[in-house]
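Mods, move this if it's the wrong board.
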Amino acid sequence: MRNLLFPIAVLAIFGLAVWYLGKRTAFVFGCSPIWFYIVYSLLLAGSFVFTFGGAYPWTNSPAGHVLFCFFSEMLGILLYLLLVTLVVDVVQLFAHFPAWLFGTIVAVLTAGICTGATINAFRPKPTPVTVELPKLRQPLRAVHLTDTHLGHFRGQRHVQRLVHLINDANPDVVFFTGDCFESPYNLNSKTLQPLKQLHAPVYFVDGNHDGYVNADSVKALLRQAGVHVLETEVVEDFGLQIVGLDYMRADDADANSMHAPVGDVTISSFCDTFRASDSLPVVLLHHNPCGGQYLEKAGVDLYLAGHTHGGQLFPLTLINNRVFQFNKGLYQFGKMQVYTSCGTGTFGPPMRLGTRSELTVLELKPCK
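Not the wrong board. Structure tokens:
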């Protein structure tokens, strides 16, 4: 019964949204809401089918690409159309707008918000963060890259933009914590070719969306571009012990890691056999910021992750802190520090509101 509660609740919310938007749109146009119920239902259904089906090959055709982009953008438009209509409706209780003015205000505000959120999503900005690490012998600059979500909305040009930003930051090393691709669209060596222009070596671990697309193909293309792909392994470089974990669950009881392999290695089981360096700081890379309790006990000094997008869009930004222990930014967890980046890409609507596309520039310094 519990497994049915969530889909029932979601369908009820969608049904109420369609009913409400249909009623208010009919008020603006002075007609029956029945056709608006149908239109909003089809738009909402299409938005979810294409947004969550983007990793399937059937979206790779020219028509599939156009439909994916349209419906993914539409999902964001419908979200803010609903929120704006609700807000204007509250004001309407006191202002008593005529129908045409009500509709104009809603349309202008929705268009402005969605346009601004879309522009914001495609302007990644370097975020400087200073972290003191025990056992670090000399300062080190690292760039933390995550959640590029290459596919229908982002391709070679986006990678080239990121390469310029990374080279401008002049890092010693780049840590890439997964979700390189979200779709087979643009999954080719040409998309990643700009990575060969990077002046610093790159260490990569995969994310859940890489798995949806085909993790082996993503890793092969990254290796062709000169990236060091870590598959639950440990290397020593730049005066660090670098640990790269495949996308996995925190432990056998973890039900929150999206489509992480069941029955394979978990963060908990990895920590049972992992030995932290006695002389080097330990930097661990994993896509999802889970399993912190095991990693802190295992002696990890800095845990780098992505996955959360910081919520990406208001009002999801208000919920994410309850969903993820380490939602965004820098955390102190016992003796371990955790940095979760919002990432440079988006999932679903190519929009960001309440968050920003982030390229983290880490200034790693010895403890004073």
